[in-house]
Amino acid sequence: METKEIKVLKDILSTNNQVAEQNRRLFADRRIMAVNVMSSPGAGKTTLIMRTVEALKGKARIGVIEGDVSSSIDAEKLGKAGVTVIQINTGGGCHLDAGMVNVALHNLPLDDIDILFIENVGNLICPGGFDLGEALRVVILSTPEGDDKPHKYPLLFSRAHAMVVSKSDLLPYVSFDLDEFRRVFQGMNQKATLFTVSGVTGEGIKEWGQWVLQNLERVRKGERILA
Amino acid sequence: MHEMAVTQSMLELVLQEAEKAGASKVVTVNMVIGEMTGIVDRCVETNFELLSQDTPAKGAALTFRKVPVKARCRSCGHVFHPAEILWQCPRCQSTELELTGGDELYIESIEVE
Question: Which of A188, A210, B39, B80 is 20–30 Å from B17 (CA)?
Answer without folding.
Answer: B39
